[in-house]
Amino acid sequence: MTAPLIDLHGITRTFGAHTALHDVTLALPPGRVGVLGPNGAGKSTLLKILMGLIPPSSGTGRVLDQDLGGDRDAAGNWRLRQLIGFMPEADSLVPGLTGIEYVGLAGELYGMPRREAQRRAHEVLSYLELEEARYRRVEEYSTGMKQRAKLAQALVHDPPVLLLDEPTSGLDPAGRDAMLRLIRALGTDHGKSVLLSTHLLADVEAVCERVVILAGGRVRGVGTVAELCSRRQDRYRIRVEGEAAGFRDDLESEGVRVLAETTPGEWRVTVPDGWTNLAFFKLAEINQVVIRALLRDDETLEELFLRTVSS
User: Fold this and answer.
1) 198 Ramachandran zone, left/alpha/beta (phi>0; psi -120 to 50)
2) Would you place residue 233 in the very low, low, confident or very high pLDDT band (cuts 50, 70, 90)?
C-alpha cells in the first residue's frame, strides 16, 4: 500500500504568545496539493515543520512514512532531507555563485556526492531552460530566472516530494503561466508529489488535484475542489436567443433574481424555493425566446475560500 504523503496529528506551533498553527490534523495521499490561505495563515510554518527546519510545539506526524525531523542515516544525513525538495518564498540565492554552482551546492547539502551533484545540476538547469545562463551569477538573473533557479535547487536530488512556497511570487503573467506549467508537468509527467503553498486561487486551480485551506493557523477544509464546493440548487447560468428583455422582466416578477449579465442575453440567476427548470422554458415560450443553455451554477473556488476563511 502506498504510504500517505502527509499524516499529521494535532500539530501546534507557537512563537511566544503567538500560535502560528493550532491542532493541525491532516492525512493526504500522494499527488498535487494546494495549501491555500491568506497571508499569516500558517502556510510557511507548516512547510518548515514538514521539512524539519523547525519542530512542532506539540503533535506528531510523518511525511512519506518518515517521522517529522527524521532519523539520521549511516552517513548522518536527515532522511527527510533526501525525500523533499524545498523552494522557499524568499530568494535564498547565494551572491557570487553561478547558477551551476548554486544548484550543485544544493545537491551537496541534500547529501549528494559532489560529482553527482554537478552532473544533476547541469541536467536540471537544462530541463528548466537555464542552460545558457548556468555560468552567469545568480544575482544577475531576472526574477523569472531566479524563480526557476530556486526550483532547480529543489529538484537537483530528484526527490519524490516538492514543497513550493509561493513559487509564482513576483512573476509577470507570462512567467507565472510558464512556472505553473512546469510544476504541473513535474506532477503529471514525472510523478512528483507537490505541496504548493499560495494565497493565489488561480495557481491552485491550474496545478492541484486537492486543496487544504488554512486560516488563522487552523485547517478549515480538505479535499478536492468538487468535494468542498457547495452544490447550488438555487443558482443557474442561462443563455437565451431573441428579445430577452420581456423574458427577464417575467423572471424577476416570479422571484428570480439576476445576479449578473455576463453577455447580452446570458445571466447568472438565483431562483426562489420551489422553482423548477420547466418554469424557465414556459416563460421563454411566452416571450418567444429560445433557451440555448441552462446550467447549474455551483460554488466557485473563490467563493469557497471566502466562505471558509470568514466562518
Assistant:
1) beta
2) confident
